[in-house]
Amino acid sequence: MLADLRRSSAHKRAMDPRAYDESTDREDDTELLESSMEQETENPPWKLSFPHVLVATIVPFLFGYHLGVVNEPLETISVDLGFHGNTLQEGLVVSTCLAGAFVGSLISGWIADEVGRRRAFQLCALPMLIGAPICATSRNLTGMLLGRILVGIGLGIGPPVASLYITEISPAHVRGTYGSFIQIATCIGLMAALVVGIPVRSIFGWWRICFWISIFPASMLSLLMAFCVESPHWLYKQGRHGEAENELEKLLGASHAKDAIVELSKTQREDETDTIKLAELLCGRHSRVVFIGSTLFALQQLSGINAVFYFSSTVFRRAGVSSNLANVCVGIANLIGNMLLIALALMDKLGRKALLLWSFFGMAASTGLQVLAAASPSSNTIGFLLSVGGMMLFVLMFAVGAGPVPGLLLPEIFHNRIRAKAMAFCMSVHWVANFLVGLLFLRLLDRMGPQLLYSMFGSFCLLAVVFVKQNVLETKGKSLQEIEIALLAQDQS
């Protein structure tokens, strides 16, 4: 029986032009077949990797917190620091952090490849530990912008590394669920910032406390990451095969580690020591997946989602709605969407592509409600309900697809050789689009009006539906090696 299986495996590989090295793969397949006959085929336990994933989600928590920390206090900050009424400078307080994140994202891939994922996490915490106190103690706009730039550098380094790390340490059958933890942690960070900001109008100088609070999770990230495993993919790439197998045993259990190391070796047969250059990402054989990744992130931001997170208080106050009510609505919708994603395991059941399609389509429909609300008189109850309902639907639909999926999907479709640097490039595109939205939203709202602006955001959402339909590969339930082979088949067809 075993001999027949060996011959069958060898015959299939000989007939398949997409196979790697035939003789070596035949030996690897024999090992896998033998091990499969010795033990039951079952998924590795998820509980072993779970604590390491939780520590990594401190990064998206900080990401959400620092994005939302100026939402409610922005007006008070502008009064205290002397630039109240200047929408461009108010936009700078938001977008300067994003400019710093762009710089951080450019170097995150190099850092993750040079020093490893764990140390990259610790390095991303450092500028946040320096920048947050500068913001909290600033006496003018210049000090605030300096602190926000430093915080942004940390935010730029951290999220790509978190996506890489969670993808590389997660068992395939729960990788989608674990990936959705990134979005729910971001959501919790945003809600924490909104809740912490509530007393800002009644307690003088409270906005400074909002920045001081962020030091605690950044310190916890730096400390706890010292006790987490290193990415086996990174260790194997460095030639530290024994350490990689040890880490796989901690993550998957001893019974699954040997099979995992055999699969991992299949993607490492190319020369992994070559330096990846930008030209190779943009024009080489990996350019298609890099284009898909960077376009997904650009469309995610051009949908206008972060304008909601940055300026919901300002926009709702202009519409005559309580800013506290606005923040509660946004926070509840975001939390419900993320809890549905986790509780129903939608990422691993429906798949990445289906979630992206329905999410962007739902966001486009909700912008239509916002346009109708903007056309109604401000005192009209129907207009009020359309405005609040449209905003909540927009955030809810983002939370179940367009928010969490790109950060998980891209590390899955990128080859291990380019994964860190390709993620860094795609995140830099994300930050550029994010920066433009943060800087220009209030000014465009004044110049264009809400109807035209929301119509523009809805158009980007519909464009995203078309793009996903034509370009995105479904990856649910597949190992990283299986995804790579499927992409290779697409390129050859």
The protein's oligomeric status is single chain
The fraction of residues assigned to DSSP E strands is under 5%
Task: Please state the overall shape, judged from the principal axes of the Cα atoms.
Answer: globular
Backbone structural class: mainly alpha
| Helix count, DSSP H or I runs of 4 or more residues | 25
Q: Estimate the mean pLDDT confidence.
A: 80
The largest β sheet comes out as: none
Task: Let me know the number of strands.
Answer: 0
Helix content: over 70%
Order of helices and strands: HHHHHHHHHHHHHHHHHHHHHHHHH
Radius of gyration: 23 Å
Compose a concise summary of this entry.
The chain is mostly helical.
Describe the protein in words:
By secondary structure, this protein is an all-alpha fold. Helices cover 79% and strands 0% of the residues. It has helices at residues 2-15, 22-38, 50-56, 58-68, 74-81, 87-115, 117-137, 141-169, 175-196, 206-213, 215-224, 232-237, 241-252, 254-266, 278-283, 287-302, 305-318, 323-343, 346-349, 352-375, 381-402, 405-413, 419-448, 450-471, 480-492. It is globular and about 65 Å long.
